[in-house]
Write a structure and sequence with these properties.
By secondary structure, this protein is an alpha/beta fold. The chain is built from 13 helices and twelve strands.
Length: 368
């Protein structure tokens, strides 16, 4: 569907939420979880760029509690129509250009979507919220999903990022998300719009587009291709299973305080090289190769420009105030992830389009 006019009429249920970017990796997992709770209608606005995939939501086909609208968050008229038609109790804003490598090669689209798109959505939300009655205004929330990359890079001995850590973005992607975070904050302090921001660590799990480290490694390993690692492979990230992240977003949506920021992390600081070795070991166990251990495919490539050395999240605030903690350890989450990709080879094949191949060649050259 390409316009709000073709959507189903608003439905009589407990409530409705508008999710942007709900056909992408994290957004799709969130939509599946929310519809599964059987208390919300989810209106899903997604542009369906290369990383947006309706196949992620195939289990919801025909479900009246999932309403899909294909469109751009920069389209103010469309946002206004969706809000007027469905009168959501909340907006959960995932939609973003999200990959650092792509932002280095084409920063303009990141500014357009992440900055201008968030501004457009905030303006539409503000206009909608101001028309609500007092009870509905008090209940309304705008949840802005952001990243730990806005905080910059940590040295090996630095404490993890807290919600008050100064912003120091080092890539066009991180800078565009930092700008959107500042806009969201300003709309609370200037207009009183009940916004809540989350800053998460690196996600992994089902439906992740294979440009990111874990699904790229799995896809290449299964195809017998090199497993590219930037630099020395010792860059450290805090890894968060996507379903844990979605549970945290739900906690913020239901109990988060307007104007607050909540950091969400998995408490799993692991170097990239160790991630890849773990994936190779799991594949050796679950789908051994006749050619030998998968670790033979590890290949180091030229480091990425401005590559942050370490991210780490202090998630004590969301645990203390909202009662959220990750349910998965890295060991349990990564095994579930590998098992999902092994069970869905057709999904990997279909998302690896010609444009994806061009991007891989651009970033990793002949090794990939």
């Amino acid at each position: 569907m390409r316009s709000a006019e073709r959507l189903h009429p608003a439905m009589t249920v407990n409530s409705t939420i508008l999710v942007t970017g709900g056909a992408g990796f994290i957004g799709a997992n969130f939509v599946l979880a929310k519809v599964g709770e059987r208390n919300d209608v989810v209106v899903n606005l997604d542009k369906l760029t290369y990383a947006g995939n309706l196949e992620n939501l195939a289990t919801l086909n025909g479900n009246p509690r999932h309403v899909f609208a294909q469109g751009d968050i920069c389209d103010r008229a469309l946002a206004d129509r969706l809000l007027a038609m469905h009168k959501p109790r909340a907006i959960v804003h995932f939609a973003a250009e999200s990959h650092v490598d792509r932002s280095i090669h084409g920063p303009g689209e990141f500014v357009r979507t992440n900055v201008n798109g968030t501004f457009t959505l905030l303006e539409a939300a503000r206009a909608h919220w101001q028309k609500l009655d007092t009870a509905a205004r008090d209940r309304f929330r705008f949840v802005h999903v952001s990243t730990d990359e806005v905080y910059g890079s940590l040295d090996a001995d630095d404490p993890p990022f807290t919600e008050t850590h100064p912003y120091a973005p080092n890539s066009p992607y991180a800078a565009s998300k930092a700008a959107s975070d500042h806009l969201v904050r300003a709309y609370f302090h200037t207009y009183g719009l009940p916004v809540v921001t989350t800053n998460c660590s690196n996600n992994y799990g089902p439906f992740q587009f294979p440009e990111k480290l874990i699904p790229l490694t799995l896809a290449n390993a299964l195809a017998g291709k090199p497993l590219p690692l930037y630099g020395d492979g010792r860059n450290v990230r805090d890894w968060l299973y996507v379903e844990d992240h979605c549970a945290a977003i739900s906690a913020v949506l239901d109990r988060g305080l307007p104007g607050q920021v909540y950091n969400i992390g998995g408490r799993n600081e692991i170097a990239n090289i160790d991630i890849v070795k773990t994936l190779c070991a799991l594949l050796d166990e679950l789908k051994p190769s006749a050619d030998g251990p998968y670790a033979r495919l590890i290949t180091f490539v030229k480091d990425r420009a401005g590559h942050d050395r370490r991210y780490a999240i202090n998630a004590h605030k969301i645990a203390r105030e909202l009662g959220w903690r990750p349910a998965e350890t890295f060991s349990t989450g990564i095994r579930k992830t590998v098992q999902w990709y092994l069970a869905h080879p057709e999904w990997i094949a279909r998302v690896q389009s010609g444009k994806y191949r061009e991007w891989i060649d651009l970033n990793y050259g002949e090794v990939a």
